[in-house]
Amino acid sequence: MNPFAFTQPKDIDGVLAQLAEGARPIAGGTNLLDLMKEGVMQPPQVVDINAIACAGLDGIEEADGGLRLGALARNADTAYHPLVRDRYPLLSSAILAGASPQLRNMATNGGNLLQRTRCVYFYDVGVPCNKREPGTGCPAKHGINRQLAILGTSEQCIATHPSDMCVALRALDAVVHVRSSSGEREIPFGEFHRLPGERPELDTTLQPGELITHIALPDAARFVAHSAYIKVRERLSYAFALVSVAAALDLDGGTIRAARIALGGVAHKPWRVEEAERELEGKQADEAAFALAAERILQGARGWGQNDFKLPLAKNAIVQALQTAVRGTAYARGERE
Ligand SMILES: Cc1cc2nc3c(=O)[nH]c(=O)nc-3n(C[C@H](O)[C@H](O)[C@H](O)COP(=O)(O)OP(=O)(O)OC[C@H]3O[C@@H](n4cnc5c(N)ncnc54)[C@H](O)[C@@H]3O)c2cc1C
Ligand code: SF4
């Protein structure tokens, strides 16, 4: 590992001053430390932001009719929080589908949003990779791409964003709140992660010097009774999604009033096609309508060889997630303690 400077400011201004100087924040460290040990990221300056948790950054509280999730709240604390379990069961299920209990105890909400791709070439400093070293090439296009994207790819990069939590946050219209030494701003979740395009080295629209302070969730009461997170992976735990689907329905009997559908494991960002959701409105909540929505969401999808199987898999997973949502959440069925 390369030598680096390390600071632990006690207040948020101290952290922001470090970030303005180019320091890299560390929260749970479950991704950043791995990347540093492998030599994939070599920040000369690291700022530990855990000491500022007490400044409200680790809280989960009601706000503006919805919820405010602190950036330093741990993934496990978020998933098991009564307000999240009762009002956002989709988010709770998505978080609990990720990683392992030990990792979720350590990982933070802010860090989860900024975890990096799991493309094997990105982690191997001995081979080219446009995301790690722009302009060197993308061996994944004709190489090991079983885990990689089928939507929104570019000539430069076909990586996926690996988070489960982010797929639910996208479906729930979350907003990311950030702060820097020059002020605060809000980023709608759909604009937070980006497609690779010509700049695959950039995962998000977060600017240098910006700290995620919290994630805001709008009220989602109408989706509480009918939501589901389906994750298809190589084994039942401790594996990243091949394809995942966060689905939520607002139903009037058997008729769809509103739908939310986001996919993970298929693109450089959580994938959502709002037009497909609008087309479901007023339709019967049945397999035929769900299959049409799946076709719409997957329009333009293409495989790269090893990941061709994701095309039918994603379609089936969308239909299955929506059918599971129709059957209702455990909470809605009265099965929650
Ligand atoms: C073996 C393994 C299996 C995993 N499986 C899954 C899985 O199935 N599903 C899944 O979703 N995830 C999975 N993960 C990833 C895990 O969820 C992430 O590593 C974790 O969420 C990152 O959070 P952290 O707090 O540890 O981030 P860190 O490692 O501390 O930081 C990650 C990045 O975020 C930046 N950062 C952190 N906090 C902030 C902030 N507040 N503002 C600005 N920048 C910030 C850091 O600078 C860094 O670039 C797995 C990880 C491992 C190691
Ligand atoms: S898909 Fe992206 S991360 Fe993977 S090798 Fe290509 S450029 Fe690198």
UniProtKB/TrEMBL annotation:
PROSITE patterns: FAD_PCMH. Pfam families: CO_deh_flav_C, FAD_binding_5. InterPro entries: CO_DH_flav_C, CO_DH_flav_C_dom_sf, Diverse_Substr_Oxidored, FAD-bd_PCMH, FAD-bd_PCMH-like_sf, FAD-bd_PCMH_sub1, FAD-bd_PCMH_sub2, Mopterin_DH_FAD-bd. Residues 1-222 form the FAD-binding PCMH-type domain. Coiled coil: none annotated. Transmembrane segments: none annotated. Keywords: FAD, Flavoprotein. This is Xanthine dehydrogenase family protein subunit M. The lineage of its organism: Bacteria, Pseudomonadati, Pseudomonadota, Betaproteobacteria, Burkholderiales.
